[in-house]
DNA sequence: CGGTATCCAAGTCGATACTG
DNA sequence: CAGTATCGACTTGGATACCG
């Protein structure tokens, strides 16, 4: 359905054909850690290591990959400081902000689901 | 993070550890076609073949797999008729109904995203 | 501090053919 | 009509080590 070429560093949405808007959105926020990353950033901008500390279990490689994906898809912005060593701040774009309430409701449903078991 | 056993027919949520409610929800609705399936069923109950007709490009095997997953996770119900040949009706559970507005907003965001490109 | 490079395992989907 | 069975391919995530 999506006969696309992806590279080593995740899939660039622009090269992926998504006839369906639901499929498109799910592809953008559907990475294993993207939901948590976005819900963290929806509270405030964060530096790389701060995000990492908040997500125990994620490796550097994977965190970087997911951040790159989100950046490519226009959901977050990346900003380096001039310090040495440099720090990198991540924060939501306007597009990303629009996702926040959706993530919230997803989280709420998940919580309800869990207490239902 | 989720050290689980999955079988040939998809993953049973009950055996998967999801510390995070977002991750849990994404895992339940994150299959490639689950969003579309759920948004179809949110309009009305449908027979297997009707669903299949509405989703060109999905194979029987994959449709069945995704339906099984959704059933296992308590999102949809499966009901056979007594006809010959039998027909199978699928419809949302209460839990599934609660997902409908979320899917709607996901679809809306996806549409806004697409016109933004 | 914030990454890359390699290599590997698991998950997920698809094509195709066949069945009660 | 509504599935199963087999097999193969691609995608995604993870372990580990190293770098400017």
From TrEMBL, chains A, B:
It comes from Priestia endophytica DSM 13796. CDD domains: HTH_ARSR (cd00090). Residues 20-117 form the HTH hxlR-type domain. PANTHER family: TRANSCRIPTIONAL REGULATOR, TRANSCRIPTIONAL REGULATOR, MARR FAMILY. This is Transcriptional regulator, HxlR family. Keywords: DNA-binding, Transcription, Transcription regulation. The keyword DNA repair does not apply. InterPro entries: ArsR-like_HTH, HTH_HxlR, WH-like_DNA-bd_sf, WH_DNA-bd_sf. It comes from the Bacteria. The lineage of its organism: Bacteria, Bacillati, Bacillota, Bacilli, Bacillales. Pfam families: HxlR (PF01638).
């Amino acid at each position: 359905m999506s006969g696309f070429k992806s590279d080593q560093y995740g899939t660039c949405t622009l090269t992926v054909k998504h006839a369906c808007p639901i499929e498109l959105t799910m592809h953008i926020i559907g990475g294993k850690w993207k939901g948590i990353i976005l819900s963290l950033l929806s509270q405030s901008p964060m530096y790389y290591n701060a995000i990492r500390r908040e997500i125990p279990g994620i490796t550097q490689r994977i965190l970087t990959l997911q951040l790159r994906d989100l950046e490519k898809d226009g959901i977050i912005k990346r900003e380096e400081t001039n310090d040495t060593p440099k720090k990198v701040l991540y924060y939501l774009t306007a597009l990303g902000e629009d996702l926040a309430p959706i993530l919230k409701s997803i989280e709420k449903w998940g919580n309800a689901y869990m207490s239902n078991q």
